[in-house]
Design goal:
Oligomer: single chain
Strand content: 25-35%
Distance between the termini: 31 Å
Largest sheet: 3 strands, antiparallel
Strand order of the largest sheet: 1-5-2
CATH topology: Ribosomal Protein L22, Chain A
CATH class: Alpha Beta
Radius of gyration: 19 Å
Number of domains: 1
Structural class: alpha+beta
Shape: flat
Helix content: 40-55%
Number of helices: 5
CATH superfamily: Ribosomal protein L22/L17
Length: 135
């Protein structure tokens, strides 16, 4: 590896140490349905976001709640603080398309209709208000 690539790699690794996130891959829900729930909690304080997800009727909300709890635990692990002490908020939520399973459904007159079973990848980033102000 060249010197510039190594320096660039070290800079990326250093920047990633201050980012607290959790990632969930290949969720068997369409990205469009997941984005509806993700938009609800983006930029919200984490305890309020957990309440919103807990009482939401959407199926994707249960998966996002579990992922948010994981992101909070990651923040606690890295900073050696409790989530109750720091005022955490959801700084970013990314929902990207995952792989699509393609299936055929029988249709009239010998045809077949294509069924696309979509999946997605979700990333939740949390940050504390104090840390965000320092930047």
């Amino acid at each position: 590896m060249g010197v510039r690539k190594r320096q660039s790699s070290d800079n990326r690794k250093e920047a990633r140490k201050s980012v607290y996130f959790a990632k969930l891959n290949d969720v068997p829900t369409s990205p469009r349905k997941m984005r509806l729930v993700a938009d609800m909690i983006r930029g919200v304080e984490v305890h309020k976001a957990l309440g919103m997800l807990k009482f939401s009727t959407k199926e994707a909300a249960g998966r996002l709640e579990k992922l948010l709890r994981s992101a909070i635990a990651n923040w606690e692990q890295k900073t050696q603080q409790k989530a109750e002490d720091g005022n955490l908020f959801v700084s970013a939520v990314y929902v990207d398309a995952g792989r699509t399973l393609k299936r055929l459904r029988p249709a009239p007159q010998g045809r077949g209709y294509r069924i696309r079973k979509r999946s997605n990848h979700v990333t939740i980033c949390v940050d504390s208000m104090n840390n965000n102000d320092a930047k």
